Amino acid sequence: MKLDSGQQRILGSLAFFVTVLFLGAAALVQVEDLPFGDALYFSLVTMSTVGYGDVVPYTGAGRVLAAVMILTGVGSFMTLIAATSDHLLSRREQRERMEKLNMVIGVFFSEAGTRLLRMCAHMDTNLPQVRERLPKESEWTDRRFMERAKHFSAHSFRVEVDGESLAAIKIFLAEKSPLLVRLLENPNLLEHETFTDLLWAVLHIKEELEFRFDLDVVSEADLQHLRGDLERAYRLLARQWLDYMRHLCANYPYLFKVAAHRNPFREIHPV
User: Fold this and answer.
1) Among 20, 189, 197, 217, which residue has the fewest nearby CB atoms (within 10 Å)?
2) DSSP secondary-structure letter at 265?
3) For all residues of the chain together, what is the average pLDDT?
């Protein structure tokens, strides 16, 4: 598992602290002729700035060693505490930002994403395979989510497009354009590259469809181009929807039930 910069800083500070702690204890064993347990205890209380005074150096060399431990060990201990505190605060702030972002994603699926995903699923040539593997509402567990994630990664996400279906998507995206633009302006999107890519993919489809005035007479080359754009957006939509459902299932069961009832893969209606 790859460590982030905060975790690396904590591990580095901890490694330095432990090194100074044991080197100091080993030196005290030699200089002060202390048992290793007492020497380790003295090193710890010195470096942590507690300094009970029940174990003290008696030789000149021991006092010099204690002074060196104070200058190096106390600094390493404080660095370790600061690194740990910064990491915990950073994690808390990150969780708060992700919670706000999940709210933004929720607005997207509530207002546009679920409907658009249903439109794409309605054109999916392999939709029966997806519907057969979708778990029932009572079966949405972590294991099931992992299975669905693997399935979505392997799914081809092929769509068959025609002028009528493209016209319906064009009208829908034109209605939702202000919402999509406002979502992109949200600074929290910097924390979620996948969702940002999804919004850009959807806006790109909107622009491509607006460029073509009469979708009933588009060329085969244009249809192929639009099909590729839709399949990319469809793939991103499906994966983001799955992640969002997992978030709801774990944190908001009552909202999950509503979202599961609106399952765009299971409830397919003419669009």
Assistant:
1) 217
2) T
3) 82
Alpha carbon distance 206, 200 (integer Å) = 10
pLDDT at 155: 79
* Residue 7, phi then psi, degrees to nearest 5: -65, -40
Lookup: tokens for 80: 């370790």
How many C-beta neighbours within 10 Å does residue 194 have?
10
Query: Whose structure tokens read 């990150």?
Result: 94
pLDDT value of position 271: 45
pTM value is 0.68
Would you identify the CATH topology of the domain 5-91? Answer: Helix Hairpins (1.10.287)
- 95-125 pLDDT per residue, tens: 777 788 888 899 999 999 999 999 999 888 8
- Token duo for residue 203: 């806006």
CA dist., res. 134 & res. 183, Å (int): 29
| 3-class secondary structure, 124 | strand
- Spatial distance between the Cα atoms of 250 and 256, rounded to a whole number of angstroms: 9
